């Protein structure tokens, strides 16, 4: 009988401090009108003292475990997607493991920037389907505010901090669960979206650099292609999709990709207005928001997609 990875629970966490566009415009040469018109962003959460990628990830994981009704010690795998780890090493996943009081499990980080959650999901799903794990925490968590150049208005207004988590469980012969995933990377575009530092080059952490217009162009093309691929792999048509949960980079990208798939805006989960772009956290944050408010229900067909630095991109279809 086929083993499937089923979402047993979702959770999320945001920093205490919410920052509006107007507040940002007090220190950055920008306006609420520009940010809303070009991106759809109105608010973002910014981590404060004591809040790190690991603390946000741990809070999100606790909520996902509570929603699933699963004890932390049942978790045998933690895959955490982040580009802003607490330390260069060890993996932030091991900090989450310790904070949750799990004595022994497999725990590691995945680095695919904004596509990180899709990559992490695919790794966890593969390990569950091969029997290497039975109960997995898959987390996307970021504190991008700490790698932003607050003098660069073209990037600093776009990002925010947060974390989202899901508990994945193995189910035999289930008609629910992850049906198909497609991932891609194209390393030729490194210089369009990157951080200008790193342990092995500058021995510093670096700051985010982006050529936004070019990233935008690639995002729309790549996302449309991978969404069609994953539909074909899952053997479903676009009109069977109940919910699209996209990476929340820019409302205009969300609109354009949904249009290419022929999906009406009511089927697209949009949180970019409240959370801004939280990189690897954005898909699980949006998923949890739509599960929590009752939009996504058991049995619904859900498509996840993301695109980010690398470039990396991917899409997944699951029956919730
Ligand atoms: O998550 C990873 C994937 N990332 C993305 O998908 C991001 C993709 N890119 C985008 O979302 C958009 O390209 C941006 C939102 C980043 C920028 O929007 P745009 O419509 O492509 O604007 P632009 O970069 O072409 O800039 C237009 C103008 C420029 O002024 P000039 O040269 O026309 O005089 C910028 O200097 O807007 C100016 N500008 C700003 N003005 C006020 C840039 N940033 C700001 C700002 N406030 N924050």
Widest sheet: strand ordering: 1-7-6-4-5
The biggest sheet, with number of strands, parallel, antiparallel or mixed sense and barrel status, is: 5 strands, mixed
Please identify the oligomeric state.
Answer: single chain
User: Which blocks of ≥5 consecutive residues have pLDDT under 50?
Assistant: none
Beta content comes to: 25-35%
How confident is the prediction overall: mean pLDDT?
97
Helical content (DSSP H or I, runs of 4+):
25-40%
Number-wise, the strands total 13
Can you walk through the features of this model?
The chain is of the alpha/beta class. Helix content is 32%, strand content 27%. It contains ten helices and 13 strands. It has helices at 21-24, 32-39, 53-68, 92-100, 116-129, 153-156, 212-234, 251-261, 272-275, 282-292, and strands spanning 3-13, 17-20, 43-46, 77-81, 106-110, 135-143, 161-172, 177-185, 193-195, 208-210, 243-246, 301-308, 312-319. It has a five-stranded mixed sheet with strand order 1-7-6-4-5, with helices on both faces. Helix 4 (92-100) links the parallel strand 4 and strand 5 (106-110). The longest helix has 23 residues, at 212-234. It is globular. The two termini are 20 Å apart. The structure holds oxa(dethia)-CoA. The site of oxa(dethia)-CoA has 20 residues, from helix 2, helix 6, helix 7 and strand 12. Oxa(dethia)-CoA (UT7) binds at residues 30, 34, 38-39, 114, 153-154, 157-158, 212-213, 215-216, 219, 249-250, 253, 277, 307-308.
């Amino acid at each position: 009988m086929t083993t499937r990875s089923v979402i047993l629970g979702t959770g999320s966490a945001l920093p205490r401090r919410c920052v509006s566009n107007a507040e940002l415009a007090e220190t950055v040469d920008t306006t609420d009108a520009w940010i809303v018109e070009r991106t759809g962003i109105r608010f973002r959460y910014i981590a404060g003292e004591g809040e790190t990628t690991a603390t946000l990830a741990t809070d999100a994981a606790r909520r996902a475990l509570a929603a699933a009704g699963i004890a932390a010690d049942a978790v045998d795998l933690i895959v955490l997607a982040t580009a802003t780890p607490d330390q260069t090493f060890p993996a932030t996943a091991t900090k989450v493991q310790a904070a949750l009081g799990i004595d022994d499990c497999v725990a590691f980080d995945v680095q695919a920037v904004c596509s990180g959650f899709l990559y992490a999901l695919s790794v966890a799903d593969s390990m569950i389907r091969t029997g290497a794990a039975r109960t997995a925490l898959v987390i996307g968590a970021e504190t991008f505010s700490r790698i932003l150049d607050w003098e660069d208005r073209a990037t600093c207004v776009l990002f925010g901090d947060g974390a989202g988590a899901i508990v994945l469980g193995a189910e035999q012969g289930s008609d629910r669960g992850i049906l198909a995933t497609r991932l891609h990377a194209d390393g030729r575009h490194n210089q369009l979206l990157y951080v200008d530092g790193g342990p092995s080059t500058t021995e510093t952490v670096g700051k985010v650099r982006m050529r936004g217009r070019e990233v935008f162009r690639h995002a729309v093309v790549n996302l449309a292609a991978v969404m069609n691929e994953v539909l074909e792999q899952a053997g479903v048509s676009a009109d069977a999709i109940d919910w699209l949960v996209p990476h929340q980079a820019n409302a205009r990208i969300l609109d354009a990709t949904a249009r290419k798939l022929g999906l009406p805006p009511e089927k697209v989960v949009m949180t970019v207005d409240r959370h801004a772009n939280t990189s690897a956290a954005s898909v699980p944050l949006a998923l949890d928001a739509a599960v929590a408010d009752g939009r996504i229900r058991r049995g619904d067909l859900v498509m996840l997609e993301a695109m980010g630095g690398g470039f990396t991109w991917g899409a997944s279809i699951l029956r919730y």
